[in-house]
Amino acid sequence: MKLNELHGLLETELARTVDTPPRDTILGKLAGKITLMASSYESDGLTFLASGDQVNALASFWYAFGWLHFGITYGLITGGDVTGPGSASCPVPGSSESFPPGYRAALTEKTLRYQRLLSIARSSVVCSPEQETVTGDFSQRVLFIAGVYEKQGGACISSGNNEDALASFSYGHGWLDAGVTAGLFHITEEHDLFTV
Fold first, then answer.
1. Whole-model pTM?
2. CB–CB of 153/115 below 8 Å?
3. Residue 93 included in any domain
4. How many Å apart are CA 74 and CA 165, to the nearest integer?
5. Domain count within the chain
6. Are the CB atoms for 68 and 13 separated by under 8 Å?
7. Structural domain includes residue 55
8. What CA–CA distance (Å, rounded) separates 27 from 11?
9. Which of 116, 153, 154, 189 is spaced 20 to 30 Å from 162 by Cα?
10. CB crowding 107-120: b at 16 or more within 10 Å, else e
11. Is 79 a residue whose pLDDT tops 60?
12. Quick check: is 160 in a domain?
């Protein structure tokens, strides 16, 4: 999928997104923060795309999807009935366009760095809610999703597909970052890997 198409799906989903809880409640404020962060990463991606930085655009768009899909899954926001990445479905290997050879060095560097950062981020948090609670269960699910995308990204690297690897690492980290912002995790170290 070309970056413009990826952005089109993200833009459509963001336009159809509605915060579920009332705005003046704690959950309403959290929903607003999730939507704001997804929109901010979309905006960053557009800035990168306009400057010809396809690598950072790809990472930003998938990071935005991670935040957005976290919010939808947590019930903080509702999305439209778009199909594809913007419908809270997860990125599929083989979905990213191959970048021209001139991007290889930057893509490889960023992909390997994001792989390392996601691994460090996962080991830098512990679940805050009690394990037997609904939120405790969801925090475990968020950790699992981040782990799945870390593993998927590693498999993409092994097959020579750094575009999808970077998408996977960015998406998984977006989920984890949103979970930290939602209070599902306590940061034990590497606080700078999260937006709180």
1. 0.93
2. yes
3. no
4. 25
5. 1
6. yes
7. yes
8. 24
9. 189
10. beebbeebbebbbe
11. yes
12. yes
Residue with tokens 């070309």: 2
Give the CA dihedral 85, 86, 87, 92, nearest 10 degrees: 0
Report DSSP letters for 57-70, one per residue.
Answer: HHHHHHHHHHHHHH
CB atoms within 10 A of CB 175: 26
How many whole angstroms separate alpha carbon 101 and alpha carbon 160?
A: 13
Count of CB atoms situated within 10 Å of the CB of 75: 12
Position of tokens 């404020």?
Answer: 29
Question: With contact defined as beta carbons under 8 Å apart, do 32 and 23 qualify?
Answer: yes
Conformation bin of residue 15: beta by default, left when phi > 0, alpha when psi is -120 to 50: alpha
Structural domain of residue 150, as residue ranges?
Answer: 3-84+103-193
The amino acid sitting at 41 is Y
How distant, in Å, are the alpha carbons of 66, 94, 118, 160, 181 from that of 113?
18, 21, 9, 16, 22
Q: What is the pLDDT of residues 131-186, one digit of tens each?
A: 899 999 999 999 999 999 999 999 999 999 999 999 999 999 999 999 999 999 99
